[in-house]
Design a protein that fits this description.
Layout lengths: L14 H18 L7 H26 L3 E4 L8 E8 L2 E2 L4 E4 L8 E7 L4 E6 L7 E3 L5
Antiparallel strand pairs: 1-4, 2-3, 2-5, 5-6, 6-7
Length: about 140
Amino acid sequence: MRPRAEHPRPRAFTLVEMVAVLVVVGVAAGVVLPRLPGVSGLGLHEAGARLVERLGTARERAILDGRAVRIDLRDTLPHGISLERLDAGGTPASASTIEFAPDGDALPRRATLVDDAGERVQVIVPPGFGRARLVGEVSP
């Protein structure tokens, strides 16, 4: 009987090697991604979209409950995003709050959000009972 020829075992990666590679890739992505152009604005647009939804819900609550609802725009903004300006009917507002009347609003409102990179978006609340909307990439 002939002895079996030993086949060399194929070399494979170990679990430790795989984890080490994933850690290195994760650290590199964490360093590189925030520096890419356009990536920083993603958080700004997401914050603007959340604010649009919050304002829409507040306006609906004011109408359904028959009482005024006041929203402070700075309450739920994430870190790195701030309220730069709030206008009511084209006039700068001194506070950071919007109040929705149950019978509709006479003046349009415009909130400008800015992130740490200087990018801006505007949330526009039309007069009457219209739905708020997000306008992106606004110049200073």
